[in-house]
Design a protein that fits this description.
The complex is a heterodimer. Chain A is mainly alpha-helical. Chain A is about 75% helix and about 0% strand. Chain A starts with 15 loop residues before the first helix and ends with a helix. Chain B is built from 17 helices and no strands. In chain B, helix 4 (about 70-105) runs parallel beside helix 6 (about 160-185) and helix 6 (about 160-185) packs antiparallel against helix 7 (about 200-230). The model of chain B is unreliable at about 1-15 (pLDDT under 50). The chains are: A mainly alpha, B mainly alpha. Chains A and B meet through helix 1, helix 3 and helix 7 of A and helix 2, helix 5, helix 6, helix 7 and helix 8 of B.
Chain lengths: ~290, ~525
């Protein structure tokens, strides 16, 4: 125990945080203007600013992570630093869980309470009679009180295949981890590569599913509460898969360069945690959005 | 409680160099620099938000429309609230956490120093966006800081998108700040600093950080739904599409109620540090304070719908939320009892930090009691959206949170600057603030109970006298804070040298390092006796 406390390490000054803050400013201010310009079809600088923000953000992430990796590889980090990183990542994942909880909560409220009340449930008989006579509560909500109609996305077929793909990718990632721990670099590389490919297949199938929803089913972001929750939950999940896959890609490159040891592999661990988390979110999503 | 063996005095000679120039502040990884930036930022935002409050009070000085348009008045109430909550109180507490937590637990710095700097620097940009939005065509956000749908969706202006994204990046900043605090406390405590030896400020901040991580993402979800409802045709909050505007209130207050505890728990920690020092007695009931703080935090997740009694909900729901809310009075009562019991037969002196802490105990309790009144569902039907509510939350936020922050500033200022502040000027600041703040907020209870609605730029004639009175109190309170700024500048520039312990009765690791605290406090862990 005493060994880990020998000397504290405080990193040197770094320009990257403020670059990151500028990036977020450009993204937030750009996006704020861009959504107005897009919805009103006006020309403006918002889109350029948003794009510039992402460029700066990516530049910042490269620079920041390069510093951290160099420091880590030159052995500057103690076991205590490693614990700080791990704990920080775990709490970050908890915050992500809560972000999805907001949307799952909205889904629950809409299905169990709002639709029931709109169709005259509880003590809302008059609301129903006066405002939305003839509205029938159902899930998926194929016809909104306002009269927008859509078709439901089936739970079998593509979504089921996608579920299998993500679950398998979690398993392959686990074997990549055991490969790393047992010094089997071949297994590590192969399994990590398979995980990445499965992630890419999943995302492609999601895109295909979206096209199918918009073109064939008439299921869009604007087709009422069912479409809202469907697209926001699967959409944010898809964004997280994309992010997780990018992180894994960089971990893969680092593996190819010979980084990570059985004892020290925080970046690998964090990427794996994130990937498993995204997988669990999908399982909840598959049950609550597609099946039930 | 705990003591440190400082045998590394000589180390500071060559380790205590500060980088110079503007880069020091842009690139820093030092918890004290970042803490200072947070505190200065909070003070600046306090005055910007305060200026908006002055506009509100000037307009309400007399009935009828005097100075501003109703739409601009609404922007002022909205942005005043947003700035004071997210720009003044929360950053001030984060600044105090940055400065004090590493010193209190014997850590060298925060656990993730670069991320710490990122969390800070996001904030000025986030509020720049919010302030720029005031100059958009159609004006800034005007739907109240609670941005209820459909005010923020169907009826809001173009600035809504800027509001949404600025809240997003504020949230990112808060979450990163909270992760840093939690990890620091879990991982960087000096050997021997066990959980039940931690100073209460550290305990309350640990629980606050947990609340932040749990609820800030929910706020992000809420603003995202507002954005898609307004711009992309979703209908989360629109009954025509199968949604429900009430859903907004549930999501918002699931964030919003823990949020108000985020703004008061660190205050409890501050008062629990100050009262024992000036009563020269250890804190009464340390363990019960820890448990009370934890229960308040847990209960905060079960009471959100008490903000929505008039929105309507099934009777069982109203009863559940009413009783859970009233239950919070128990742990809060434990805290107030413990502070008073700490002072019982103590050898008390009344320096400025103690005066503000005492004012906190009395005035926060008034705010707590009016909160209990509001918790009673049938009574709340009368109070809802009146000035009584405004009086309630300003008693807990201004004489609660803000007073505790000022008390903390006086308490630790000698540790930060190495100089004693001007005690006489501080007493002036205290008495001017105390009197004017009560002139300002106490009559609001009466006009509220008499039926004056909040967030309206004009009012019925019978409220004229009280409102003039309130406005005068408001201007005086605003002016009193200028004394504070003058005092801060004086103290930063010089003054009587402070000793390491500063206060005769002060105990804890932060009082065993020299004043001003060296740039890097602990390079090897201190030994806790």
């Amino acid at each position: 125990m005493n060994k880990t406390y020998e000397k504290y390490y405080v990193p040197a000054q770094s320009p990257w945080p403020i670059v990151g803050a500028v990036a977020l400013f450009l993204i937030a201010f750009g996006a704020g203007n861009y959504v107005n310009e897009v919805t009103k079809q006006q020309p403006g600088f918002g889109g350029y600013m948003l794009a510039a923000g992402f460029v700066v953000l990516i530049f910042m992430l490269f620079g920041w992570f390069k510093n951290v990796i160099d420091e880590s590889m030159s052995g500057l980090y103690s076991a205590q630093m490693d614990r700080s990183f791990r704990q920080g990542m775990s709490w970050f994942i908890l915050s992500e869980v809560m972000f999805f909880m907001a949307f799952f909560g909205a889904l629950f409220y809409g299905r169990v309470i709002a639709l029931n009340w709109l169709s005259g449930g509880s003590n809302n008989a008059m609301t129903f009679e006066i405002l939305w006579p003839g509205f029938e509560a159902m899930w998926p909500l194929l016809k909104t009180p306002g009269g927008i109609e859509t078709q439901a996305m089936p739970a079998t077929g593509l979504p089921l295949i996608n579920t299998a793909i993500l679950v398998i990718s979690s398993i392959t990632l686990h074997f990549a981890h055991t490969g790393l721990e047992q010094q089997k670099r071949g297994q590590l590389k192969l399994m990590l590569l398979i995980t990445l490919l499965l992630g890419a297949v999943f995302l492609s199938l999601q895109v295909y599913e979206y096209i199918h929803a918009y073109r064939d089913l008439g299921l869009t972001l604007a087709s009422g509460f069912y479409g809202n929750t469907f697209f926001l939950l699967t959409g944010f999940h898809g964004m997280h898969v994309t992010l997780g896959a990018i992180i894994l890609l960089f971990v893969f490159f680092r593996v190819l360069k010979g980084h990570f040891t059985p004892e020290k592999h925080f970046a690998f661990q964090a990427a794996a945690w994130y990937w498993h988390f995204v997988d669990v979110v999908w399982l909840c999503l598959y049950v609550f959005v597609y099946v039930i | 409680m705990s003591a440190v063996v400082t045998d590394h005095e000589h180390d500071h000679e060559h380790h205590d160099h500060k980088p110079s120039g503007i880069k020091r502040w842009f690139y820093t990884t030092n918890h004290k620099d970042i803490g200072t930036m947070y505190l200065v930022f909070a003070l600046v935002m306090f005055f910007i938000g305060g200026a908006m409050a002055m506009v509100i009070r000037a307009e309400l000085f007399q009935p009828g429309m005097q100075f501003v348009e109703p739409n601009f008045f609404n922007q002022m109430t909205t942005v005043h609230g947003l700035i004071m909550v997210f720009g003044a109180v929360m950053p001030a507490f984060t600044g105090l956490a940055n400065w004090m937590i590493p010193m209190m637990i014997g850590a060298p710095d925060m656990a993730l120093p670069r991320m710490n700097n990122w969390s800070f620097w996001i904030l000025p940009f986030a509020f720049l966006i919010l302030l720029i939005s005031l100059f958009m065509p159609g004006g800034g956000p005007s739907f109240g800081w609670t941005f209820y749908a459909p005010l923020s969706t169907t009826y809001s202006g173009d600035s809504t998108a800027l509001f949404v994204f600025s809240v997003h990046i504020m949230g990112i900043s808060s979450i990163m700040g909270a992760i840093n605090v939690i990890v620091t406390i879990f991982n960087l405590r000096a050997p021997g600093m066990t959980w039940m030896k931690m100073p209460l400020f550290v305990w309350t901040w640990l629980i606050t950080a947990f609340l932040l991580i749990m609820v800030m993402p929910v706020l992000a979800g809420a603003v995202t739904m507002v954005l898609t409802d307004k711009y992309f045709g979703t209908s989360f909050f629109d009954a025509a599409g199968g949604g429900d505007p009430v859903l907004f209130q549930h999501i918002f207050w699931f964030f919003g109620h823990p949020e108000v505890y985020i703004m008061i728990l660190p205050a409890f920690g501050i008062v629990s540090s100050i009262v024992p020092t000036f009563a020269r007695k250890p804190l009464f009931g340390y363990a019960s304070m820890v448990y009370a703080t934890s229960s308040i935090a847990l209960l905060s997740f079960l009471v959100w719908a008490h903000h929505m009694f008039t929105t309507g909900m099934p009777v069982a729901g109203a009863l559940f939320f009413m009783y859970c809310t009233m239950l919070i009075a128990v742990p809060t009562g434990v805290k107030v009892f413990n502070w008073v019991a700490t002072m019982w037969r103590g050898a008390m002196t009344f320096e400025v930090p103690m005066m503000f802490a005492l004012a906190f105990i009395v005035l926060f309790t008034i705010g707590g009691f009016s909160g209990l009144m509001l918790a009673i569902t049938p009574a709340d039907f009368q109070y809802h959206d009146t000035y009584f509510v405004v009086a309630h939350f300003h008693y807990v936020l201004v004489t609660g949170a803000v007073f505790s922050i000022i008390a903390a500033a006086y308490y630790w200022l000698p540790k930060w600057t190495g100089h004693m502040y001007d005690e006489k000027l501080g007493q002036w600041h205290f008495w001017c603030s105390l009197i004017s703040v009560n002139l300002l907020f106490f009559p609001m209870h009466f006009v509220g109970l008499a039926g004056m609605p909040r967030r309206i730029p004009d009012y019925a004639l019978q409220f004229a006298d009280f409102n003039a009175f309130i406005s005068i109190g408001g201007f005086l309170f605003g002016a009193s804070q200028l004394i504070f700024v003058w005092l801060l500048v004086k103290c930063a520039r010089g003054g009587e040298k402070a000793t390491a312990q500063v206060w005769e009765g002060a105990e804890g690791l932060e009082w065993e390092v020299p004043s001003p605290a060296p740039y890097h406090t602990f390079e090897t862990p201190p030994v806790i006796k």
